[in-house]
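Hi R.,

Here's the chain you asked about this morning:
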Amino acid sequence: MSETMKPVLRIYYVPQAFPCGPDSSCCGLIGQSQEELQQYRAEPEKALPGVAIETINADKASGGKLDLRRDMPAIRLLNSFGYAACPIVVLNDEVISMGPPVLEELVTLVREKLALPSPSGT
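And here is the predicted structure, written out as tokens:
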């Protein structure tokens, strides 16, 4: 990665919904709520200044649009595991998490991958 490029942390999600309808008894709720997305964004934004955070809707049915060049790491996981893989977290072009992340661990992992100092300076 060039030094002039800003690192990008992409969070691929599926909007929370009942796939068979809200009154269906066959399956439960899938996807991530707006509150969850806000959490997944807020902590990394606060803890990782200089890292761009993007949230990307991976559900074509609800208006999401994936780009083959930018989103190939997430597309591969979605093709293998379906929406159960979401949220998928990609740092630049490398998948670093799938499924609900532990945010403290995610931030630590990003710091290590980018060789950023920890807040305590250690």
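One quick note: The radius of gyration is 15 Å.

Cheers,
M.
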